[in-house]
TrEMBL record, chain A:
Coiled coil: none
Keyword Transport annotated: no
NCBIfam families linked to this entry: LLM_duo_CE1759
Domain (NADPH-dependent FMN reductase-like): residue spans on this chain: 6-156
Name by which UniProt lists this protein: FMN reductase
Pfam families: FMN_red
Keywords, in A-Z order: Flavoprotein, FMN, Oxidoreductase
Organism expressing this protein natively: Lentzea fradiae
UniProt cross-references to Gene3D superfamilies, sorted A to Z: 3.40.50.360
UniProtKB/TrEMBL annotation, chain B:
NCBIfam families from the UniProt entry: LLM_CE1758_fam
Luciferase-like domain sequence ranges: 1-295
Residue segments, region Disordered: 334-385
GO molecular function, one term: monooxygenase activity
Keywords: Monooxygenase, Oxidoreductase
Taxonomy, superkingdom: Bacteria
GO cellular component, one term: cytosol
Keyword Nucleotide-binding: no
Organism annotation: Lentzea fradiae
Protein name as it appears in the record: Putative luciferase-like monooxygenase, FMN-dependent, CE1758 family
């Protein structure tokens, strides 16, 4: 029997097709192919942030999560692995990309394996992934694969990019297959901070045995 | 069930006329709105508490005492009274005084307040907001129930032999609603004391509040105050009404689009879909409001936000006519016929006096003679030792 994995591609590309999406798709295809070789069935779902742009902006300035955005959140909640890909604008990840991840609950992506990718018009942006994007995904407590993907214009004709895609794909498959997320969540979920209704609306346990709960029930503050 | 109107006390530019009312105009208007609330047959008027412009309501008990004096049946309340930055001793005193002047026609809703800069203005820290709220209420609860309080806590100066005066009217404390939009600890505290829980659901999707209200109901039953269905729940709502729904949409849209908090954000139709906002004909408002009890269970108080976002007084008064004449009478009838017979009656002073004393006369505390030192020794009142 083969194990089933859900890979979710998040792309902040704006063209159709965009090079950002193209890079993510090449990685996703390699993950699927490598999975098959290792008896893993990998299904791929894609979230195009471009289609959620208005709902992302609304969510940033209010508590209002639109229907399409909620679907994306639910999809990520069920992801076993994530490919997150963005164009670089003005020496940073697209605001659409960072805005989307800033909206998510802090605990939605805990321990999920992630491969990061970025595209740019010049190689001068090459360190954006490792220097800027990793921090965001560290905050979200994801596990980011060692190889980051970056493609400037000249990289698209360079076979070294393909080699890096293969590396990142294998790293992602290895993390997914190792069950890292499941182990962390099964054995350590309570050690992370949660709010009532966080983790995309699934974190509903209430600890009645806390200092604040004792204070709520007429006790005294420590 | 009680129906009422609550106001944030925002002074907002009218996006249609371009006019911003003065503080004086808006304060006069709110008194008129409260009077109108009674005239059209609604039960409750509640005002928020804020300590920064563009809001006017920094001293709710002063406003509410004035309104109580100008009305006969209306219950005056808050939405909310800040249990964090107010000294609980002052809340005990001010609201007991209001309770006397209003002859019991009052209650209050407690909230934490989410404007960070307000906290240090009153010597507090928003990072301590939750334990501060919980501890302050524990003290407030005692101040209204014990003639003499010795108390020591983390946040406030200790009290030795303190008596909060005046004692509550008929020695029955004001009814308290705990307002919360996301905090299980607040729901727990409401349940522990058998107080009301108010979910101001006007901004967020209903699923969120369904979970919190369910938790409150379970804990209310756990602490032995009654069954889950007997817990005391209040809900927020927001409406703009016109005879024809297209008129309602057209008239309200400019106000919605520029409203504080949610303006410049979601589309009005999306917001209507995901929150309790009703913009439409009386029947549409009725239909939507009737779904609330299906999601949250039968409840005791439905409040509507009617006067914010720069809506001019004339429009608000017209809205209240429609709400009071065409919406609420139908809601009362429909809800009465559908309501679970177990549902608790909405809280009133008369009902709470009856619950406490039955047919016996209520306690009327009379102080002992001034001995020059009323802060030490036994009871300050003649009927207790």
């Amino acid at each position: 029997m083969t194990a089933q994995f859900r890979l979710v591609v998040v792309s902040a590309g704006t063209g159709d097709p965009s090079s950002t999406r193209l890079l993510a798709d090449r990685l996703a295809q390699r993950v699927t192919a490598l999975g098959t070789r290792k008896q893993l069935t990998v299904s791929v779902q894609t979230i195009e942030l471009r289609e959620l742009a208005a709902e992302i902006a609304t969510a940033l300035v209010s508590t209002h999560i639109g229907a399409k955005l909620q679907n994306a959140i639910t999809t990520l909640h069920h992801a076993d692995g994530i490919v997150a890909s963005t164009p670089v604008y003005k020496a940073g990840a697209s605001g659409l990309f960072t805005s989307f991840f800033q909206i998510l609950d802090n605990d939605l992506l805990i321990a999920k394996p992630v491969a990061l990718a970025a595209t740019a018009g010049t190689a001068r942006h090459a360190l954006v992934v490792d220097d800027q994007m990793r921090g965001l995904f560290a905050y979200l407590r994801t596990i980011v694969v060692p190889t980051s993907l970056f493609a400037a214009t000249e990289d698209w004709t360079d076979s070294a990019l393909t080699k890096r895609i293969d590396r990142a794909a294998l790293e992602l498959v290895a993390l997914m297959a190792a069950g890292f997320e499941k182990t962390v969540r099964d054995e350590s979920w309570d050690r992370y901070q949660h709010e009532f209704g966080s983790a995309g609306g699934t974190e509903l346990s209430i600890d009645l045995d806390s200092d604040l709960m004792r204070l709520a029930a007429g006790g005294s503050a420590n | 069930m009680q129906f009422g109107v609550f106001s944030v006390s925002d002074i907002t530019r009218d996006p249609v006329s371009g006019e911003t009312p003065s503080e004086a105009e808006r304060i006069d208007a709110i008194v008129r709105i409260a009077e109108k609330t009674e005239e059209v047959g609604l039960d409750v008027f509640a005002i928020g508490e804020h300590h920064n412009p563009p809001f006017f309501s920094s001293a709710p008990t002063t406003l509410l005492a004035h309104i109580a004096a100008k009305t006969q049946r209306l219950i005056v309340s808050t939405a909310t009274t800040l249990i964090t930055t107010n000294d609980p001793v002052r809340i005990a005193e001010e609201y007991a005084m209001l309770q006397h002047l209003a002859k019991g026609r009052m209650d209050l809703m407690l909230g934490r307040g989410n404007t960070a800069p307000v906290y240090p203005w009153f010597g507090q820290d928003i990072r301590q907001s939750l334990p501060l709220a919980l501890e302050n209420y524990n003290l407030l609860h005692r101040l209204w129930r014990e003639d003499v309080v010795d108390w020591e806590g983390k946040f406030r100066t200790p009290l030795q032999g303190f008596t909060s005066t005046p004692r509550p009217l008929d020695d029955v404390p004001p009814f308290v609603w705990h307002g919360s939009i996301r905090t299980p600890e607040i729901a727990e505290q409401a349940a522990y004391y058998g107080d009301g829980f108010f979910a101001n659901n006007i901004f967020w999707p209903k699923e969120h509040y369904m979970r919190l209200i369910k938790f409150y109901r379970q804990r209310y039953a756990h602490y032995g105050h009654g069954t889950e269905k007997q817990a005391i729940v209040g809900l927020g709502g927001q409406a703009y009404i016109a005879k024809r729904s297209q008129d309602a949409l057209n008239e309200f849209r400019p106000y919605f689009n520029e409203a504080p908090v949610y303006g410049h954000g979601p589309k009005m139709e999306d917001f209507m879909e995901m929150t309790p906002l009703s913009v439409g004909s009386p029947q549409e408002v009725i239909d939507k409001t009737l779904t609330f009890r299906e999601h949250f269970g039968d409840y005791q108080r439905q409040m509507f936000l009617m006067d914010h976002a720069g809506l001019p007084l004339k429009t608000v008064l017209n809205q209240l006519d429609l709400l009071g004449e065409e919406v609420v009478p139908v809601l009362r009838k429909e809800i009465e016929s559908r309501q679970d017979p177990q549902t608790a009656k909405p809280p009133t002073h008369a009902g709470r006096v009856r619950d406490k004393y039955g047919d016996q006369p209520a306690r009327q505390p009379r102080p002992n003679a001034n001995r020059g030192d009323n802060v030490t020794g036994g009871s300050p009142y003649q009927d207790t030792k």
